[in-house]
Amino acid sequence: MRTVRFRALTSILIAIALTLGAWLGLSLKIFSGQQLRLADALFAGGQPIDARIVVIAIDDKSLEKRGQWPWDRTLHATLIDRLAAAGVARIGYDVLFTEASSAPADQALRGAMQRAGTVVLAAAATFGTRPGAILTATAYQPPIEPLAAAALAVAHVNVFPDKDGVVRSMPAVLDAGGTLIPALSIALVEPAASTEPITVRPEGIIVGTRFIRTGEAHLLEVNYADKDAFSVVSATDVMDGRVPRETLQGKIVLVGVTAVGLGDQKLTPIDKSDGLPGVLVHANAANTVATQNYLIPESRATTLAAVFLLALMTALAVAFLRIWLSPVMAFGLGAAYAWISFVRFDDSRVGNLVYPPVTIVLAYMAALAVRYLTEFRERHRVTQVFARYVAKDVVDEVLAAPEGAVATLAGASRPMSVLFADLRGFTSASENAKPEEVVAALNIYLDAMTQAVVDEQGTVDKFMGDCVMAFWGAPRPEPEHAQRAVRAGVRMLDNIDKAIKERPETALLRVKGCGVGIATGDVVVGNIGSQQRLDYTVIGDTVNTASRLCGVADAGTVIVADGTRKALGEDFRLGDMPSLNVKGKAAPLRVYQVLREGQHSRTIAAGETMETEAAKGSFDAPAPAELASERDRKPGAAGYAPIEPVTDHPRSS
């Protein structure tokens, strides 16, 4: 439960931290450019189209038949007359007439506009202030006065390219000397723009009864449709009368150049290579206003809520799911957010495509780091605790491959050395002692004995009362297992002697010492037990032999079998001992004593043997009380072989 609470708490903290970071980034408008570019991918077509919008294209065909650009204004007069005769609702001219031409041509154009009564002329402006307020024109270029007076309205055709040159928006209105000039698209769709004042609101403008949403910057975000979404008619076909009346009747037409050579191409989110003709940009803007399909960026609160939820879900996935499943979950969250963004865009909602995806990545990395550090700390703690109950080498093998530990530590037969060490006199010393005193004293001795095994890189198999069992050669191979086992046995004796000397006032600690038995040979080592509990241990005749040697080892002696003697070489001084009669074996065992400093081998009488039936850890061993009674027996009892201080005896071969 504590681990669950910790994981949940750290996940929440990660989500809060990333949400605060996103709030700071949004406040400082960090990655705003990246957001614009990523949002361009949401334009996949499917926007509703107002069928009234028609583009009259001054295309290559028109230039080829009517002459090079700019045209004589009498041609524009002819075009307007033809459109008026076809019954169009309004005519928007994306062509500037800011300078006078010949008087007859200007008069012809003015007369055609007056007869039509539906023409909106274009004006241009330059401005210096950034979005955030109504843009103020520093230079304004309206149509010449005679034409402006004949027009239904005058509207600006300025667009607002972003830093990457892509036109995503245009000023809804411009302030030209105190007069608000609407965009051409707004003036065409809403006739009230020519007769009623424009009201500016914090999130948009009001023209007549229509509210045009722009956001705080008062920029009209253009919701682009497909390139071929609008009906496009060649201007020369209109002038020649080859366009059916029903194609134009009641339509809102925009007249502008589409010939690529005339240089009126604008980069847009749907075409960043060749761009779109400016007149099609205005057609898309007019369609946005006509359908009221305004692009509305998700609010900061909505974005931060998405960031928090995505960060929390990602962190929880990493904290609680399997490590291979957490990246799948993170990827799924990212894909789900992308899908929701596309769906929301169809409803004109522009979601933030920077902070939520980045949040998923950062949350995954942060949660993974926390999990790694937590599991590393927990692994270290478990290793420390586990190693107090199971041999450290076994712990390392299990933790290295938890799922395959049974297979990794499968049974195998290999040459090893096995050691049994038993305290002498501990049973009688603890007979009338308090339980807590017995445990405290026993821990002191077992710690001294265990330390000797650890120092020689052995594996402590188990504790049996005041007896320790250890082995060398598994789970990791050890070529000098016999030498290490014997050195560990000698260290045990030294450690026990030291412990006795350091606490002479404690009667419970006044044991006689420690007896050690060591045997070397092939043993079976591996996981032994049931499905519920396994014990990594060794079994076999070598184990029983080491146990029986321990049974006859007096306090302060290390006894080894003949197999150990052969493996030791010349590294140790060994003394002869009487052969050991072992129950179940036809011939006595040759055994030897490892001589410590100050010890000498004894003289062995012909035919002298030792007898024992006590075997530590064997299935037919006597009960603990019997073992204690045997190992605490007085000198002279059967099987007891005291060490005699005689001259060195040559090692038996």
Task: Please describe what this structure looks like.
- The protein has three domains: 2-41 and 298-379, no CATH class; 48-292, no CATH class; 404-631, Alpha-Beta Plaits (2-Layer Sandwich), CATH 3.30.70.
- The chain has 21 helices and 29 strands.
- The model is unreliable at 614-653 (pLDDT under 50).
- α11 (300-320) packs antiparallel against α12.
- It has 653 residues and is an alpha/beta fold.
- The two termini are 64 Å apart.
- The chain is rod-shaped and about 150 Å long.
- α5 links the parallel β2 and β3.
- Strands 1, 2, 3, 4, 5, 8, 9, 14 and 15 form a nine-stranded mixed β-sheet that branches. Strands 20, 21, 22, 23, 24, 25, 26 and 28 form an eight-stranded mixed β-sheet that branches. A three-stranded antiparallel β-sheet has the order 6-7-13, with helices on one face.
Gyration radius over CA: 49 Å
Tell me the number of strands: 29
Number of discrete domains: 3
Q: Helix fraction?
A: 40-55%
Q: β content, as a range?
A: 15-25%
Q: Show unreliable segments.
A: 614-653
**Number of helical elements:** 21
- What is the mean pLDDT? 85
The helix-and-strand class reads alpha/beta
Overall shape: rod-shaped
Major sheet attributes: 9 strands, mixed
Q: How far apart are the termini?
A: 64 Å
Which features characterize this protein?
alpha/beta, nine-stranded mixed sheet, disordered C terminus, 41% helix
Task: Briefly characterize the structure.
The chain has 653 residues and is an alpha/beta fold. The protein has 21 helices and 29 strands. Strands 1, 2, 3, 4, 5, 8, 9, 14 and 15 form a nine-stranded mixed sheet that branches.
